[in-house]
Write a structure and sequence with these properties.
By secondary structure, the chain is an alpha/beta fold. It folds into two domains: 445 residues, TIM Barrel; 99 residues, no CATH class. The protein is 36% helix and 15% strand. It has 22 helices and 21 strands. The strands form six sheets. Strands 6-9-10-11-12-15 form a six-stranded parallel β-sheet. The two termini are 28 Å apart. The mean pLDDT is 95. The structure holds flavin mononucleotide. Flavin mononucleotide binds next to strand 8.
């Protein structure tokens, strides 16, 4: 059984940021070439439920928005809207492993947060504090200038009873006013390299918007009740995240077949339990009216993942959740149909409807401009960030969006949306949503979404992975959403280029590094697994090390599985670059 995910304390994260910056010019392993400067191109700013965001992009609810360092990484890459990992009352779920399979399309079997509810609150507060400190410290001024505004958007699920419990209500209240947590954490900043910024102003309101996840059996009739509860009891502006099942079984089947995904099996019963299209329309209209009457903002998000039968057998559950390219086509078809059926309601295609549409379905570098060009705000990403390059994929997406805006001869995102709408009208189309949906359905222009294009084969090397040495492709570092891998220069004795080590407390054994590692064997298990907390080390019966630092010298304990490797580990982590951890 895998060990629980254990966040690093704020002080350790601050120290790690500082040491990596001093010794490697990186932060949480992201090189400066992948930092995004929002001032470097056309104005990409947008509004999310009335709040400014400096770019219309960010990570979707998932592994990239659970731990503090993940959120900082998304921010460095240029993300400015963070759909935080869903928090629900069941905070002791045992998720089977591996839980992510991004080999071709995206599949996962994850649920909501793996952390305890108070830990989730603390992670989001820590992320906000680290971003504030980085901004105030001025260290990054030359690289990213004024970073502009960002928004942390809460995500909760999945039923009214759970959301009304003291634990979840307390969590939401805590996110609205986190003064207590901030005050409790400040001393950790004061004790480290950012001591001069320990008193920096931090807005105690970490979040006052929420996206309601209606996945995992959220009862359709409760969506309305929960949304109203969130608007009134918690005074939050609300987005309802809808599921592709809204299209109905027949249409989803037909679309998947047309795209060449005949082998993806869906089950009518998974559609029967979910919200239906007509009820969905009613719900959107009703909640918009309710929000207007209560002085709140309301929007929808398209979409969450699609439940499919697990025929691949990589993930250990009978069903799994599809994301990535095919979901982009399904979600866009759904947007088009909602837009036709509720004229004037949605703020897309150049129409100034009252309901904001945000997005999380197969966004990548090649379709970001087409998507936000429809007026969608924001476009959030999960699957693409789990591919090689990881968080480093955000900045190229934003650069390509900036280029599209410049090429269109306009100055900012709003004008770009108008430009795309005007082009569509000039071509005699209903609007830009209709044009883009038709492009996705067309076998030629929609080719990147078809099975032939998405069936990639991963690189393989005929070699068994060992504790020391490997092809040094760096993929394990970039595909890990938790930044659980550290790369250190090898030693003369070992004679490799780099050594890769696992920060075991941050590894939840999701399987993503194993998917992309070209050698045979699981990097998360075979590479040196380091713990900094004794109780986590002692609870693990697989080969592992406990590392500490005494007077600047690493102290290492090993269990039986790797006792012979202590001296080698000492020479690797004792090098100039050192372990970027204050383990004292
Ligand atoms: C590993 C993984 C975990 C996810 N966890 C959540 C979650 O906790 N809450 C949620 O609303 N959506 C979750 N999602 C769905 C994503 O937020 C997103 O809606 C979906 O993956 C589609 O976007 P994509 O095609 O960019 O991946 C998860 C997706 C993946 C792949």
């Amino acid at each position: 059984m895998h060990e629980p995910l254990t966040p690093q304390p704020l002080g350790m994260l601050a120290d790690r940021m500082h040491r990596e910056w001093q010794t490697r010019r990186r932060i949480f392993d992201l090189p400066t070439a992948r930092f995004f400067d929002v001032n470097s191109g056309p104005d990409l700013s947008a509004e999310f439920l009335g709040r400014p965001i400096a770019t219309p992009l960010g990570p979707a609810a998932g592994p990239h928005t659970q731990l503090a360092q993940n959120i900082v990484l998304g921010w460095l890459g240029g993300g400015r809207l963070f759909e935080l990992k869903t928090v629900q009352i069941l905070d002791e779920l045992e998720i089977a492993r591996p839980c992510i399979d991004m080999a071709s399309l995206g599949f996962n079997i994850e649920w909501s947060q793996e952390l305890k509810i108070p830990q989730s609150l603390e992670e989001y507060v820590k992320a906000q504090m680290l971003i504030r400190v980085l901004t105030e410290s001025g260290e990054l001024d030359e690289l990213i200038g004024d970073p502009g505004a960002h928004v942390f958007d809460l995500s909760v699920g999945y039923d009214h009873a759970g959301i009304s419990t003291e634990a979840v209500a307390g969590f939401i209240d805590g996110m609205r006013d986190a003064s207590g947590v901030i005050d409790r954490l400040r001393p950790e900043l004061a004790a480290g390299p950012f001591a001069g910024f320990a008193d920096v102003d931090i807005d105690p309101c970490i979040s006052d918007t929420v996206t309601l996840s209606t996945f995992h059996g959220c009862p359709p009739d409760e969506i309305e009740k929960i949304s109203k509860h969130l608007m009134t009891r918690h005074e939050l502006d609300v987005i309802v995240k809808l599921n592709p099942t809204l299209l109905g079984f027949g249409q989803v089947r037909a679309l998947l077949d047309a795209l060449g995904y005949g082998d993806l099996k869906i089950r009518p019963e998974d559609f029967a339990a979910d919200l239906r299209f007509e009820r969905g329309l009613e719900l959107i209209g009703g909640l918009q009216q309710f929000a207007a009457e209560h002085g709140r903002e309301f929007g929808i998000k398209l979409t969450n993942t699609l439940v499919v039968e697990n025929e691949k057998g990589v993930l250990p559950e009978p069903t799994m959740y599809l994301s990535g390219p095919p979901l982009h086509v399904l979600a866009m078809t759904l947007l088009d149909q909602l837009h036709i059926s509720a004229p004037g309601m949605l703020r897309v295609g150049g129409h100034d409807g009252p309901v904001q549409v945000s997005w999380s379905a197969g966004i990548d570098k090649d379709n970001l401009a087409d998507s936000v060009g429809l007026g969608i705000v924001p476009a959030t990403v999960c699957s693409d960030l789990l591919k090689p390059g990881g968080y480093g994929r955000l900045a190229p997406m934003l650069k390509k969006l900036g280029q599209a805006i410049t090429d269109a001869g306009v100055a900012n995102l709003d004008e770009f949306v108008e430009h795309r709408a005007a082009e569509a009208f000039a071509d005699g189309a209903r609007d830009s949503v209709a044009v883009y949906t038709a492009e996705l359905h067309d076998p030629e222009t929609g080719a990147p979404y078809r099975a032939e294009a998405t069936a990639t084969s991963l690189r393989e090397v005929d070699h068994d992975l060992e504790m020391w040495g490997c092809v040094a492709c760096n993929l394990c570092v970039t595909v890990c959403p938790n930044d659980a891998f550290v790369k250190l220069p090898s030693t003369e004795e070992l004679g490799h280029r780099w050594e890769y080590l696992v920060l075991s407390e941050l590894c939840n054994e999701c399987g993503n590094c194993n998917t992309f590692c070209p050698e045979r064997g699981d990097p998360a298990m075979l590479k040196p697994r380091l713990y900094t907390s004794a109780h986590r080390f002692e609870a693990d019966d697989r080969p592992a090390f406990l590392v500490g630092m005494a007077d600047g010298v690493p102290t290492i304990t090993a269990n039986d599985g790797c006792a012979d490797e202590i001296d080698t580990l000492r020479s690797v982590i004792g090098g100039d670059a050192g372990l970027p951890l204050d383990t004292a």
